[in-house]
């Protein structure tokens, strides 16, 4: 096992010291856990070199920033951070940005599975002390096995195979959406991006159709507004005409009322005149009768 880790012959004292060098706790549990972490680091270095890395070293610094594992290939520098517990997503993202600013072309976090894995270029390792160094990543890997877009893999991946693909350039990390991402093969990323390009093209076409429909709707709205303005002007004119007609009608009603009053006055005058004429007719008849009587009397007397 030590030969596979690249440690060669290491005595027990050195191993224990390496396992407890960075921890103040001296209990057997912490020492064993740190030994598992150190074993994983050296195992990763040996696998990286075996898979084609130019060099891989444990506990190095890059531009003053300390990293657990630093390896290089074809002039590019990569960093691996190994954590045995949960990660603070914000601090891990800041540290990742710091490493990239320091010159690292890629960063890998090995940590316990959790929600933070999908927000970082990380792999979730549930067992840091597997038999025969058969490390397995249970989260952090995505694929297109069940859909055209990458989704979290339903099967765990051996860390050995992941490192082989990462060194060869067959596996890379990318964003699934605006916040989360994962590790996938270049082929899966090509399929993912092709599907996204198809979706974007379809959405652009839909957006173009929607813009056309919106332009037509706006034109219809403008035409309707013009018609509304015209109808409002007509309504104003009609209201003005109605006011004029109402005023004329009121004037006619006033005149008609005046005519009714004059008519009533004339009718009353006519009735009075008719009564007067009737009286005068009676007086005239009576006068004629008196005259006739006088004449008759005169003839009789003669």
Automatic annotation (TrEMBL):
Residues 221-255 form a coiled coil. Keywords: Coiled coil, Membrane, Transmembrane, Transmembrane helix. The keyword Transmembrane applies. The keyword Transmembrane helix applies. The chain crosses the membrane at residues 280-301. This is Competence protein CoiA-like protein. It comes from Nocardia puris. The lineage of its organism: Bacteria, Bacillati, Actinomycetota, Actinomycetes, Mycobacteriales.
């Amino acid at each position: 096992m030590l030969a596979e880790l690249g440690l060669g012959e290491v005595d027990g004292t050195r191993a224990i010291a390496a396992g407890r060098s960075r921890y103040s706790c001296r209990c057997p549990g912490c020492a064993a856990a740190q030994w598992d972490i150190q074993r994983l680091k050296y195992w990763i270095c040996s696998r990286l070199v075996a898979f084609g890395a130019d060099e891989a070293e444990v506990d190095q610094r890059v531009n003053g920033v300390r990293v657990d594992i630093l390896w290089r290939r074809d002039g590019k520098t990569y960093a691996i951070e190994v954590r045995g517990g949960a990660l603070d997503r914000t601090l891990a993202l800041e540290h990742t940005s710091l490493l990239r600013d320091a010159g690292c072309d890629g960063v890998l976090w090995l940590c316990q599975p959790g929600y933070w894995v999908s927000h970082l270029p990380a792999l979730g390792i549930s067992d840091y002390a597997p038999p025969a160094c058969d490390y397995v990543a249970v989260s952090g890997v995505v694929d297109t096995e069940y859909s055209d877009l990458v989704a979290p893999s339903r099967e765990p991946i051996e860390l050995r195979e992941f490192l082989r693909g990462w060194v060869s350039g067959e596996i890379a990390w990318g964003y699934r959406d605006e916040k989360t991402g994962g590790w996938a093969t270049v082929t899966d990323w090509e399929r993912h991006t092709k599907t996204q390009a198809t979706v974007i093209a379809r959405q652009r076409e839909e957006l173009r159709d929607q813009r056309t429909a919106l332009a037509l709707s706006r034109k219809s709205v403008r035409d309707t507004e013009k018609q509304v303005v015209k109808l409002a002007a007509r309504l104003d004119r009609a209201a003005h005409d109605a006011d004029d007609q109402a005023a004329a009608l009121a004037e006619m009603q006033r005149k008609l009322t005046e005519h009714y009053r004059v008519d009533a006055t004339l009718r009353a005058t006519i009735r009075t005149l008719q009564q007067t004429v009737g009286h005068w007719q009676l007086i005239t008849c009576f006068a004629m009768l008196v005259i006739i009587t006088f004449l008759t009397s005169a003839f009789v007397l003669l």
